[in-house]
Amino acid sequence: RKEVEQDPGPFNVPEGATVAFNCTYSNSASQSFFWYRQDCRKEPKLLMSVYSSGNEDGRFTAQLNRASQYISLLIRDSKLSDSATYLCAVSRRGTNAGKSTFGDGTTLTVKP
Amino acid sequence: NAGVTQTPKFQVLKTGQSMTLQCAQDMNHNSMYWYRQDPGMGLRLIYYSASEGTTDKGEVPNGYNVSRLNKREFSLRLESAAPSQTSVYFCASSLDRGGSPLHFGNGTRLTVT
Questions:
Q1: What is the DSSP code (8-state) at residue A85?
Q2: Each residue of B72-106: pLDDT tens digit?
């Protein structure tokens, strides 16, 4: 089993739709959680960190469920420009602290 | 502010050739990383450097070596390239090893024939 797993999609949604992605992690020592956005053939860019209490940034909401070991990303009122691959990442405590493990990504296509 | 700069952007090698990928960051970050990304896959960690003077293996270190030249620079060397090393390579940095987010370079697209 991979340490970080995501539904690869693709998710094809119309503009204005709400879409949610989940990401599960297997190591309970995971400490920090992130969502990155990657456009085709470009580098990943941080979309948002995920905090224990959940956090929101405009149309984007991230949640953490430590008990079930998953993080989620909710995108409301989808725009064409949201089309991209979304990568979740986790990093953990201990000797391997700091280095992030990534999921394989979920592809989102928003259509007119 | 350049952030993380990688060179070259593209490279074609023949099997057995060697090359070094260069990476530099100007954000005064302590930790640096090299990832590879294959089509349809996520990022896999090759090597990382938690702080200047230290390097550690990641998930897929075989066939690679690294040097943390100073706080700014972290290079990745392929001693004898193989077709299986055809990939996109990303360098990244983070403020510290305490779980800060990563900042990525633009990537190097390497083809080994």
A1: E
A2: 999 999 999 999 999 999 999 998 766 789 999 99
CA B56 → CA A16, A67, B21, B82, B113, distances in Å? Answer: 45, 31, 17, 22, 29
Residues A1, A8: Cα–Cα separation, whole Å = 15
Q: Do B102 and A32 touch (CB under 8 A)?
A: no
User: How far is A110 from chain B, CA to nearest CA, in Å?
Assistant: 19
Residue pLDDT, tens place only, A11-51: 999 999 999 999 999 988 888 999 999 999 899 999 999 98
Count helices and strands (H / E) in chain A.
Answer: 0, 11
CB of B89 less than 8 A from some CB of A: no
| Contact state of A44 with B104 under an 8 Å Cβ cutoff | yes
Q: How far is CA B60 from CA A41, A76, B8, B45, in A?
A: 21, 37, 21, 6
Written as six digits, the tokens of A93 are: 């405590």
Token output for B84: 């299986």
Closest listed residue to residue B25, CA positions, set B100, B111, B112, B109: B100
Give the nearest chain A residue to B38 (CA atoms).
Answer: A104
Measured between beta carbons, the chain B residues lying within 8 angstroms of A98 are 31, 48, 50, 94, 96-100
- For B95, nearest residue in chain A (alpha carbons): A98
